[in-house]
Structures are given as structure tokens and as C-alpha cells.
Amino acid sequence: MSHLPTHQTLPYGVAIHQAIAEGNLAQMKTLLEQGEQHLHQYGDLHAAVEQLKLEITRLERR
Questions:
Q1: pLDDT at position 10
Q2: Cβ neighbours of residue 45 closer than 8 Å, sequence gap 6 or more
Q3: What's the confidence (pLDDT) of residue 1?
Q4: What is the pLDDT of residues 52-62, one digit of tens each?
Q5: Under 8 Å CB-to-CB from 35, ≥6 apart: which residues?
Q6: Which among 33, 26, 25 is positioned nearest to 8, based on CA atoms?
Q7: For residues 40, 45, 50 and 51, what is the CA-based torsion angle, rounded to 10 degrees?
Q8: What does the alpha-carbon distance between residue 20 and residue 22 come to, in Å, rounded to a whole number?
Q9: How far from the centroid of its chain's Cα atoms is residue 9's Cα?
Q10: For the chain, what is the HEC assignment?
Q11: Hey, what long-range contacts does 58-61 have (CB within 8 A, 24 or more apart)?
Q12: Cβ 7 vs Cβ 15: under 8 Å
């Protein structure tokens, strides 16, 4: 049995742009709710990515 998490459409890029392009209000609302839950649970992804970049740079300089 795989220990990988089940696939879930993340509220990023393609899914958001596709819902907007299609004018799919229900999908947009679902993605917004998922995005807000993700932010509440994990915080700002952009800030986390920037933190990773800083840490990678710091470790590579050793």
C-alpha cells in the first residue's frame, strides 16, 4: 500500500485560471474555500518558499 497522500487539486495556478476562464462560479467558490483553508493551516506559501531559498543559500555557503 502506498503511503503517498491521495491526489487533491491544489488551489493554485492551473485550477484557478481554468475555473476563471470557464466562468465556473461553483468551482471558483470551491477553490477559494480550499485556498483559504490551506492558508489557515499552512500559512503563506510565498513566504515559505522565500524562507526555503534563504536556507538553501545559507547551507550551500558552508
A1: 55
A2: 38
A3: 47
A4: 999 999 999 99
A5: 11, 16
A6: 33
A7: 50
A8: 5
A9: 9
A10: CCCCCCCCCCCCHHHHHHHHHHCCHHHHHHHHHHHHHHHHHHCCHHHHHHHHHHHHHHHHCC
A11: none
A12: no
Report pLDDT digits (tens) over 9-38. Answer: 555 788 989 999 999 999 999 999 988 988
pTM above 0.85, yes or no: no
Say if CB 35 and CB 8 are below 8 A apart: no
Q: How far apart are CA 3 and CA 9, in angstroms?
A: 18
Q: Which three cell numbers stand for residue 28?
A: 471558483
